[in-house]
Amino acid sequence: MRRRWIFGSLVAAPVAAAVFAVALAAGEATVHSTADPSPIHLEEGIPVGVLHTPAGALAAGANYMAVERRSAATAPAEFRRLLALTWAPSARTAELDAAQQAVRQAPAPQGVHLLTAVVAGRVEQYRSDTARLELWSEAVYWSAAIAPTQTWSLDEVSLRWSDGRWQVSAHAIVEAPVPGWATVYHGNDTSLAFDETLGGMSAPYYGAR
After folding, report:
1. Is the dihedral of CA 72, 117, 94, 10 positive or negative?
2. What is the value of pTM for the model shown?
3. Tens of pLDDT along 109-141?
4. DSSP string, 55-68
C-alpha cells in the first residue's frame, strides 16, 4: 500500500481556529482495572504500551502513531528512539527506510510547527499476544511561509506482545476519510493566529503515567 506522510500529502486541506487532541476512550477505560492501571509508561521520553489487554493495545498503537507522525520528519533522533523501543526488531529497518525516503521526497519546511493527534481507533482483531488496529489520525502544520494545513491518515497497525510491552510488527498507511472545510472566524486560519494561540502547545500522550 502507498505510504502517505505529512508533508506533501495528497489529503491536505487548510484548517481554522483550534486543534483538538481527543484522548482515546480505550486508554482512559483502563484506569481502574489494575493495581498499576496506566497503559503507557514513558521511557527516554517515548510512550511505551505496557498493558496486556485490548484497551492497552489500542492505547499503545495510538501513542506510537502520534509520535511517529510528529517525529519522522522533524525529530529524527526521537524517531529512532521510538523504533528502538516500540517496533519489533524485524520491522524497524523497513519503517526507517520508508520514513527516510518520504522525508527526502517531501522534507519538513523551514521553521515549521507541527501538532499531531489520533482522533479515533478500533481493535480489528485481538489474540493473546497479537493485535490488529485501525487508527484515524490528524496532523496540523504551519509556518511563517505556509498557511495552516491539515493532513489525515488511516493507519493499519499490527502489534505483538514481547518483553512486557506492545511492539509494532507491521504498519501501513492507507487512504483516509477527510473532513470538509473548517469554519473560519475573523482570520483565525492564519499562521499568525496559530502562533499566538497554539505556540508552545504539544500533543498529549494517551493514558500516560
Report:
1. negative
2. 0.78
3. 888 888 888 989 999 999 999 999 999 998 888
4. HHHHHHHHHHHHHH
Domain assignment present for 207: no
Instruction: Give the C-alpha separation, 24 to 37, whole Å.
Output: 15
- Count the domains in the chain: 1
- Residue ranges of the chain whose pLDDT lies below 70: 1-37, 181-182, 202-209
Instruction: Report helix angle 54-74 to 76-86, nearest 10.
Output: 150
Strands 13-14, 149-162: parallel, antiparallel or unpaired by DSSP? antiparallel
Report the alpha-carbon distance of residue 55 to residue 32 in Å, rounded: 12
We report the CATH number of the domain holding residue 191 as 3.10.450.50
What is each CA distance from 69 to 123, 155, 164, 178, in whole angstroms? 20, 11, 24, 17
